[in-house]
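User: Hey, my collaborator sent me this sequence without any context and asked if I could get a structure. I don't really work with proteins. Can you help?
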Amino acid sequence: MKKVFSLLGLMLLTGCVITSDLTYEGEDKGFAFMSYMIANSDYAGDYKLYFENEKGQTSSFFYRKDGAWGKSERDFDSGAFNGAVLYQKLKPGKYKLTKFEIERGTQTIHFSMQPFDFVVASGKATYLGELKEKFGGTGYMEFSNELSRDFQLLEKKVDAKGLATIIEVPNKDLVMAKKMTEVKLY
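Assistant: No problem. I've predicted the 3D structure and written it out in structure-token form, which is a compact way to encode the shape of the chain:
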């Protein structure tokens, strides 16, 4: 029992977010999609953009650049950048982006972020933009609109032909690096 409370305490101290699988397969489902474009560098990392539904349940767009546990499937892989288009099948309704972080082993870069509201509509795809790391390992991230490229890649992953798109790309500097924490493992 002590181990459980210790683990919960550690999760609270490190800002760990408990996520849910919000995947919805109903006939009235909609999509939310975005892409990561991460600068190639010597840093491995897990990139997590969290969102929540109206009930406060949280999920994320997760991308693993590199690491001991492998890497995410890539749609882009050039000398300078790598990344992917990610999507979620969701129940129609109101959602919001709430948090962004990069984990590198025992280090986590936390970002300040104002919540960003978006809507998922039945039979439509809501585009949240590309989140790009400008310089490798710096945590300097910026949103941009790469819809034409990203929608073509989404069409290869899901049956998206003729799917109407709702564009809800955040301001380019919605996420700003705030602090880095390091968890010491003994």
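In plain terms: Residues 3-15 have pLDDT under 50 and may be disordered. You can pass these tokens on to your collaborator as they are.
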